[in-house]
Amino acid sequence: MEIKVFASIKEKIGSDTIDLFIGDSITVGELKNHIFIDYPELDGEVFQVAKNESFVKDDEVVTSDDTVALIPPVSGG
Question: Which InterPro entries match (predicted)?
Answer without folding.
Answer: Beta-grasp_dom_sf, Mopterin_synth/thiamin_S_b, ThiS/MoaD-like
